[in-house]
Amino acid sequence: MWCFQVEELEEKLLDQTQEVERLRSELGATDLEKQLELLLVENEHLKQELKSCRSSQLQKLDTAAETCSSSHCPHRQDVESLRREVSRWESQARQRERRLAELEQELLEKSSRVEILHLQLDDSRRQLEESGRRQGEDEQELALRLQECEEELAIQAAEPPRDKYATQMVEVELADSQRALAETQTKNGALQEQLSAQRQLLRELETQLHESQRTCAQLRTQLLTDQGHLCSLLSKAFGKGNGKGVHRLSKLIHVYEGEMQRAQGQLEVEMQNLEEEKNRVIEETFIRAESEMKVVHENLAGVRVNLVNLQRALRTLTCDYKCLKRQVQDFPFMLDKAIAEAKQEICRVISDVSNTNQELLRKYKREMNLRKQCHNELVRLKGNIRVFCRVRPVSQEEQDSADAKTMLSFDSDDDAILYLSNRGKIMTFELDKVFPPQASQEEVFQEVRSLVTSCIDGFNVCIFAYGQTGSGKTYTMEGEVDDPGINQRALRLLFSEVTEKDWDYKITVSMVEIYNEMLRDLLGENPTDKLDIKLNPDGSGQLYVPGLKEVIVQSPEDINRVLELGHINRATACTNLNEHSSRSHALLIITVSGFNSTTGNRTQGKLNLVDLAGSERIGKSGAEGCRLREAQCINKSLSALGDVINALRSKHSHVPFRNSRLTYLLQDSLSGDSKTLMMVQVSPLAANMSESVCSLKFAQRVRCVELSSSSSRRHENSSTSSSPTHDSVELDSPPVTPVPLPISRASSVLVLIYL
Ligand SMILES: Nc1ncnc2c1ncn2[C@@H]1O[C@H](COP(=O)(O)OP(=O)(O)OP(=O)(O)O)[C@@H](O)[C@H]1O
Predict the structure, then answer these.
(1) What is the model's pTM?
(2) Which of 227, 327, 696, 703 stands the most exposed, by the fewest C-beta atoms within 10 Å?
(3) What are phi and psi of 423, to 5 degrees?
């Protein structure tokens, strides 16, 4: 049964396919289209021809009518009748034209219907193909199923029936297949109906087409007939005589024709111009569009290149990102490793630096010792007793006075030479250093700073300012508030220098005044109290001043405070400070104690800065009573100082320290390895020349003696105790006995002593 159905279906399918093919060839869509196109073209052509013929004939007729418009024309009636004939013919022609348009319209409709039919035919064909394909598929499926069912049946036939279920399944499937077949058959019937309807439609269209062609042929024939008729009418109208009129008419016709041709030519030219204009505009637009297109293309190309670059960059970035990610992942391990390495390196460097530091410290200590030795040697070579001279400038008041003329001059090549013109004689003085009036406080201090720093190394130092009243002693030692002298600068220098490693330093300050051989403590509670100088009961042989106040200074502010206090105390004890200061010695005693915490070593140095009383006042004053006593005391102390220095320079075994309070107090700072500087102050005025000569002669003698005895003193210094009890020592050579001098010539006395 299955086989039969399938075969039947196959046959039907074949029939349908053949039918479709036949219809296809019968309809010949392309032929039909061609025929329709030809018909349309022919119609159009006829229409144009008819139109032009009619218009030309009408024009000719109009012209002829105008020519024959005169009442005398014999052909007037003929022309009139001709015109009527023409208008009738014209109305007929219009009717035919309308009919032709209708036919054309009909033709167009029919051709569009043919088009639609053609499309419908295509659809039907596609549907047929589709159904054929589906039928093929169904057929294949059915064949497959049939084969399966046959196999099943064969299996079932081979085996005893055991289950009804399988048979039922096959039946169900068979019913499905039958249903599908029925549906296909229904569809096929519907398609066939559609096909027959279309075929009928096509036949009708063909009939209409034939009718149209026939009508066209009739119209053409009619037109030709009309034309012939018109020509005969014209020849009738103009051919009977009146050759002149005909000739004129034909001429006019020619003229009109010529004008028509010219007008047509102009029209054509205009048309051509318009065409050219149109082409030009189109061309320009095209060129513009092309250039814009080009720009757009270029931009597009740029964008593409950018895109490519960006893609490349993106790839690189991605790659970098991955690398960085890897590095970030590895970073903690690397960091730990680097930190460990850095720690090791730092430890190594620290140990290296510490070793180097140890080495440097060792070298530093060695160098410091060397520096001390060198410094000591330098000071020794310069001489333990040195003499400077400072000439003060002429003051403003002195410049106006008569004896302001200075008799002093300096050697520009040698700063140790001073010339003095005295009573027509030029005297030359050679000292260790001569400071001219323009020398600043700082310049002076730079020359004494090595002596000041010696006391840090444990040396005792004495700096005296010696000279007549008003020669500038106080100015050199104390200075002014904004330009301090040696005292304040020395203390500041000591502060800045006592920063040595391993050493602790303590700086104490005492201020003492010696007036009339009386010792007064300028920093004590009672500055008027008299102090004594005594031997230290510890048996060291050192002298000390019981009750003398020692103030510890730790900063520059402390220094200012202490110096201010001493100044105030000195001023309160007298009525006129200037006069008082001229008649008393002022001592600033600075003690520098050092302790080395590493070695346990101790050092102690003393710096005595002494502003001596004026050296000449005694002689000039002619004083008596209290003034005489002052003068005697000053004379005594200055004589004693001269004696001591002379004895030290001359290496006398007996040095008369006890002859005055001043020398007794300074005993330990003037003997042994102690260093002494005498700053001889000189006035530049001619009126003070004799005093200046005395002071300078004394200074030069001191210096000469010193230099000649430096080698022997070095030996002696090394063996001399820093605090000998000179009073008990035997004299090696006869001492220079101070000659009692008249008070008025005190300064001369000094000179005489040493000459
Ligand atoms: N180098 C100098 N530059 C400028 N002025 C100076 C200089 N030396 C001294 N003077 C001035 O000269 C005057 C006297 O100086 P100073 O009082 O120091 O002399 P003196 O020797 O201490 O006197 P006295 O023995 O009476 O104390 C002061 O007005 C001082 O300012």
Answers:
(1) 0.50
(2) 327
(3) 50, 45
